């Protein structure tokens, strides 16, 4: 292809700012975990979108927050790493929350990594506030940082997203496309499948437990009839958590397995046989192998 463009766009912001929702809308398919709970995205998930002659590789980073433990620190390091590797950085904030303390703490670091690259502002969830408040927020944010452009969007409803994608496409550097035209994500299918199951667990269970669990795809078998057998392990940190994940009479894990299997089958457009096991690993948060499976660097979790 001639006169093509390709580059990386990092979406950064606080947890729950809508980064995963925007990534999925930009790509046109669900490649990132989306729940109402914060800190659900753990790895730098890449989604690929085509805009005219440009290929935009979106990096959906974990939300930026004050880290307390190893997994927190590894997630925050992954987020800033994704931003520092990108051609364009998009800072997402929530219109109704405005300039929070969290956003204020991001700006000095953004000034460091923003040097020499394009940084845009996306004010999300604009349907929750009045126009006057949006204009005031836009002014205050641009007074705090010299953004190249400001976009007012609703990632959930799609408002303003086409304009943002068109602008990003024009900002990509000239060069050949980085991925095949029909590829929408560069995560291994095993990891996407694990993320789907973790999302279903996160939605079913209370707020604290999802942080203490992780899902890994242990085996992936392609069958002669075109279907796939997928074996996954849900690791939890405590015996008490295993019972919660299983549910009374195995009800919870059966429901999660069914929902995850149906979504994975739809994603792959073929039949899937999904088998889940729940295992207790008290120290999985300190095991480097678990971080590798999540696409994180264990060393980044060091203090």
TrEMBL record:
Record-stated family: Belongs to the TRAFAC class TrmE-Era-EngA-EngB-Septin-like GTPase superfamily. Era GTPase family.
Residues bound to GTP: 13-20, 60-64, 124-127
Species of the source: Flavimaricola marinus
SUPFAM superfamilies linked to this entry: P-loop containing nucleoside triphosphate hydrolases (SSF52540), Prokaryotic type KH domain (KH-domain type II) (SSF54814)
Domain KH type-2 residue range list: 205-282
Annotated function: An essential GTPase that binds both GDP and GTP, with rapid nucleotide exchange. Plays a role in 16S rRNA processing and 30S ribosomal subunit biogenesis and possibly also in cell cycle regulation and energy metabolism.
CDD domains (alphabetical): Era, KH-II_Era
Protein name in UniProt: GTPase Era
Molecular function, one GO term: small ribosomal subunit rRNA binding
GO biological processes: ribosomal small subunit assembly
Domain Era-type G: 5-174
One GO CC term, this protein: cytosol
Upper classification of the organism: Bacteria, Pseudomonadati, Pseudomonadota, Alphaproteobacteria, Rhodobacterales
Subcellular localization: Cytoplasm; Cell membrane
Annotated stretches, region: G1: 13-20
Subunit structure: Monomer.
């Amino acid at each position: 292809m001639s006169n093509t463009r390709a580059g990386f766009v990092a979406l950064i912001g606080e947890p729950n700012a809508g980064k995963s929702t925007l990534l999925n809308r930009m790509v046109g398919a669900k490649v990132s975990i989306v729940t109402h709970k914060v800190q659900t995205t753990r790895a730098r998930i890449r989604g690929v979108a085509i805009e005219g002659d440009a290929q935009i590789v979106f990096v959906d980073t974990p939300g930026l927050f004050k880290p307390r433990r190893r997994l927190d620190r590894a997630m925050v390091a992954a987020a800033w790493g994704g931003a520092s590797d990108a051609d364009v950085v998009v800072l997402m904030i929530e219109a109704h929350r405005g300039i929070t303390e969290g956003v204020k703490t991001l700006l000095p670091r953004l000034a460091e990594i923003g040097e020499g690259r394009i940084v845009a502002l996306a004010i999300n969830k604009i349907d929750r506030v009045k126009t006057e408040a949006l204009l005031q927020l836009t002014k205050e944010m641009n007074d705090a940082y010299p953004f190249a452009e400001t976009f007012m969007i609703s990632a959930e409803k799609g408002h303003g997203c086409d304009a943002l994608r068109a602008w990003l496409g024009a900002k990509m550097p000239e060069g050949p496309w980085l991925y095949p035209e029909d590829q929408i994500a560069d995560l291994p299918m095993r990891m996407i499948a694990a993320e789907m199951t973790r999302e279903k667990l996160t939605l079913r269970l209370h707020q604290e437990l999802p942080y203490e669990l992780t899902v890994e795809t242990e085996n992936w078998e392609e069958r002669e009839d075109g279907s796939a057998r997928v074996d996954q392990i849900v690791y939890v940190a405590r015996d008490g958590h295993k019972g919660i994940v299983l549910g009374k009479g195995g009800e919870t894990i059966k429901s999660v397995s069914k929902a995850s299997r149906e979504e994975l089958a739809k994603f792959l457009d073929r039949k899937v046989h999904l088998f889940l096991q729940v295992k207790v690993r008290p120290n999985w948060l300190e095991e480097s192998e678990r971080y590798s499976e999540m696409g994180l660097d264990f060393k980044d979790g060091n203090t």
